[in-house]
Amino acid sequence: MSARRSKFAARLQYLLVLYVVAQVVVGSFTDLPYPYWAGWIPIVAVLAIAFVRRRSADRAAAAHPPAPVPIDPPVTGRWSALNSPATKVPSHGTHAYGQTYAIDIVAEPEDRERPGFAWVRPVARSNAAFPAFGAPLLAVADATVVHAEDGQRDHLSRNSLLALLYLMIVESIGRTLGGARRVVGNHLVLDLGDGTYALYAHLQHGSLSVRTGDKVTTGQQLARCGNSGNSTEPHVHFQLMDTPTLTTAQGLPFTWRGVGVPVNGERFTVAAGQSLSG
Question: Is the pTM of this model over 0.85?
Answer without folding.
Answer: no
